[in-house]
Specification:
126 residues; alpha/beta; six-stranded mixed sheet
Length: 126
């Protein structure tokens, strides 16, 4: 990917911060991430209520390093113009609205079998 030399254009293509939504911030297993990290993450990625339910019911626990990888994947998808992306991390699949920077749902390896993901325009493996 080439670097943009024009400062005005560079400002236009930078990801714009998303206003806080009613979706709850990303949380992780107690003791796996610092409060500071959770606050930083909450400003950059939200988790919908549905996704929180799926994470809890399927006992999916991502640590701070894994969430950083997810964020990196979402950022990469955004630079390519993606709107809805399937982010694959280790043995977990996250369906993410790149535009809204929100995790929509989460599926673990046990539930991935014979699943069909629709309405996505990209997949990112992190």
């Amino acid at each position: 990917m080439s670097t943009i030399a024009n400062a005005k254009i560079q400002q236009l293509v930078q990801p714009t911060p998303v206003a806080p939504t009613r979706n709850a911030p990303v949380t992780s297993t107690p003791g796996t991430a610092s409060t500071d990290f959770q606050n930083v993450l909450a400003d950059r990625l939200k988790v919908s209520g549905h996704a929180q339910t799926r994470l809890a019911s399927r006992d999916i626990q991502l640590d701070s390093g894994q969430w950083e990888r997810v964020l990196d994947g979402v950022d990469r998808a955004a630079t390519k113009g993606a709107r809805e992306s399937l982010v694959l991390i280790d043995d977990v699949a996250l369906l993410v609205s790149v535009k809204n920077r929100t995790v929509i749902t989460a599926v673990d390896q046990a539930n991935l079998k014979e699943n069909v993901f629709t309405n996505i325009d990209s997949a990112v493996i992190v």
